[in-house]
Amino acid sequence: MIINRQTTRRRILRGMLGGTAVTVGLPLLNIFLNTNGNAFANGTALPTCFGTFFYGLGLTPGQWEPKIVGPNYEVHSELEALKAFKNKVNVYSGLKCYLDGHSNQVHSTGVQVTVTGGISRGRADTKSSIDTIIADVVGTRTRFRSLEVNSMGRSQSNSRREGGTANPAETAPGALYTRIFGPEFVDPNSANFTPDPQTIARRSALSGITEQRQALITDLGADDRTRLDQYFTSLRELEQQLELALQKPAPMASCSMPDKGEDAPAGTVVEDVMANNALFSRLLAHALACGQTQVFNSVLTDGASNIRKAGSADTHHVLTHEEGSDESGYQSGVSWFNRRNIESLAALIAALDAVREGDRTLLDRSLIYAVTDTGLAKVHSLENMPLITVGSANGRMKTGIHVHAQGDPATRVGLTVQQAMGIASAAWGTESNATSKAISEVLA
User: Under CATH, what is the fold of the domain 47-175+268-433?
Assistant: First the structure.
């Protein structure tokens, strides 16, 4: 194998293993960066990354909205998992999705407004989602214009192009691993992509680039050698986790075959969904850190949120309508699931924040837009929609702020996000959801 000894920020390591191409991108090493680690050595700014995170059934009114408006807000119970990242999290309350006489298509209308800017009258009327608007500007020079994942194992994503064409989601972390590491030329729009479930058990991407890894290390200083060693160690740990997830369980002598019943919906046990989300989050962090993409979309649950505890038939959705509540409307079982959803968002945040880049982290040059489908699931309300942004978008967003904008269209956050990502959008949305008023409190 011929080794290319030139080390640049665009360098990737390629190899072959078992007749299959493998590709491993490099993280941002000191050798690529200026002395502060906040730009490339030639002065070019590090690319800004964007992602959406969706979870179903919203949060409990009174259990998530901070009382303090502005900076130094307090973290309420259902956002407790975000406390460690509070200084990098903005919370938006009081915002509304307007129906304008349209019927409320429960679990989908709220998503349409927050990610496409309005309510469509049909597929042909559907506008592009915010991620595709951004990807068409910032994602044209990366290997993947965007990456979509679904932690419930379904192909649905909230990523849409004008006319309603959806970008299908990867349904398993192993599938995303295979896409990132090879074979290299997989149709990113194929809804039927089904990787060999034994791929990771048979090979490791790191095993296919051993010689190049060794040659690269000799070119680097001590700090970069340490960082690269930590990076490869983390990647191997991720491979091992995926390998275990794909292995067939060992037989158990006491196990007998029950009568065949109806299959449970795929991926509904909350612990499994959260485990998939954690693996997806680490893989997405790798793809962003190595310049494979600058845009991603992560779906934790479907809009109806049919996740459940293992051994229970009561789903999150069922509980929102059938569980009793106290005089304030609080439903303890529903709140338990709401907190799991926010813990999953925290896992994504932690994965990006764990990637060090000079004196900052990958999260600092990213912007995550977390959305849901309803303000109060029990009645499918589209008022007081819980919306969250995380990260400063390379310094373009102020963070650690609670914004309360009672009755304003929820699209104000989407417009603000676009402007923070450098999109020349003076207005966004349709009918009463149209707005030209970005949230100046958070724009730097």
Answer: Alkaline Phosphatase, subunit A (3.40.720)
